[in-house]
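Subject: complex prediction, re-run

Hi both,

The earlier run crashed halfway through, so I resubmitted it with identical inputs.
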Amino acid sequence: MTYPVELRNVSFYYSAGTPIQVAALKNINLKIGRGELVGIIGHTGSGKSTLISHFNGLLRPSEGSVIIDGEDLGNDKETLRAARFKVGLCFQYPEAQLFEETVAGDIAFGPKNMKLPNDEIQSRVLKAAEFVGLRPELLDKSPFDLSGGEKRRAAIAGVMAMEPEVLVLDEPAAGLDPGGKNEILAMITEYRKRTGCTAVLVSHSMEDIANIADRVIVMNGGTIAMDGTVNEIFSRSAELKNMGLNVPEITRIFIRLRELGYDVPTDVYSVEKGAEILREIIGRRSPL
Amino acid sequence: MREKLIELNNVTFTYEADEDGTPGYTAVRDVSLDIYKGEFVAVLGHNGSGKSTLAKMMNAIYEPTEGTVTVNGILVDSEEKGDEIRRIVGMVFQNPDNQIVATIVEDDVAFGPENLGVEPSEIRRRVDEALKTVGMYELREREPHKLSGGQKQRVAIAGVLAMQTQGIILDEPTAMLDPTGREEVLKTIIRLNREIGITVVLITHFMDEAVQADRVVVMDKGEIIADGTPREIFARGEFLREHSLDVPQSTELCRRLGFEECILTPAECVEKISSVLGGAAQ
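This time it finished cleanly. Structure:
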């Protein structure tokens, strides 16, 4: 059985072989299944970005192997090149990396590198722009004329236009207002519904991860400290706190109520569900 | 009578058109706002609403195109006044990696007062005090690049404190931080305001930070569209969502449960729910 992304005993050292060698990843074993939406959380410096940079060969492991779609990236240039297109990586604050003369040019950058025919490139640019909600008249503008939110969309469209099998997004909603953030998250959900692609989302927002992910990976000190469902991970509130993380605000409320002796569940990750449970309990105890 | 620290009178700011054809636009339109001494004011608004431009005028980084800005009674009417203004209100920015200049934490904090020509013994005293206030004294000999994001932001805040400013403006200081970093920085900001009486203007996209303020100002398309206590503002969930904002999860939960008062924090929420359940625990 092959996985879109598989890491076997991967370690990565910065300044390898020097006295200041630092292990950023330590013996990581990881399999990401087809169609999964994996959320990655971890404090700053826990190894999240180093980890995802291995998914498309941007960083090569110091030890161990990275296997993309059954192909060991090894040192074969062609396999490595193919991985760049199979795994689309969108970094934090990607708008800082827009550099073409027009928005269309920026979105076309990936597909051009894939050496697709021109008409295919054109159609992908239009499709991706429409998908992220960029009006067609913006496509001929300079990326610098776009608003912050529009630039972010253009950068994400550039990755989507490669139609990768795995979409990897590092903090796609950081710095956006709540409305903009919700739009980006809805966009990712919709994109997966349409394409069935595998997705990896790195975020500091426990609320967003709880909302959107099927599976959560917790990075700590360059290792995978936890790996499980939203429920399995966020039920370990005290351990998460020790790793500089947290659980969603709504979950904290239910944990506290439970501590106070109320018979409520603590696996509550959305306000909707929380309200439903409490309405039921309040209705039972006191006819309001 | 409450004294004003920052006064904006009918302030407009227009970015000029670029040579390469980028059109100019008005980021802040006819805004009047007074920030009082000792206040903690949160500024909310969608991306591009003019929050950062407004903040930069409060700190004399920008001069208004129209209208006047007065800081502690000093009218900001020339670039030369910038240094004087920044001794009264300091600023902390979003990216922790862009604002640290020195290679040792305490040198970074000393940078501002050194530039002012403060006596070395006085610098020492101010640096130590500022680092203790933000909880970074133990790490004063560290190299800044080895610190976490939250620690770096606290060093940046200490740098402002060492200037002995009366006010501090923070432009999304926690946007790039992990949950613990956010919590550390928010706690530090609250302490500066409540224990030392420093005036705080906090620009943020996090509603759970804004609820800690005395007053919340909401911007939209360059204008102030609401100004009130957190309880007044967050009672208007529908209005906020229309302007690309939101309310904290605690507030939304209590609204859905039909509670009349506006609840702001998880602690208030838990208290309210237990009172409704009437000590029915166990």
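Residues 248-288 of chain A form one domain.

- K.
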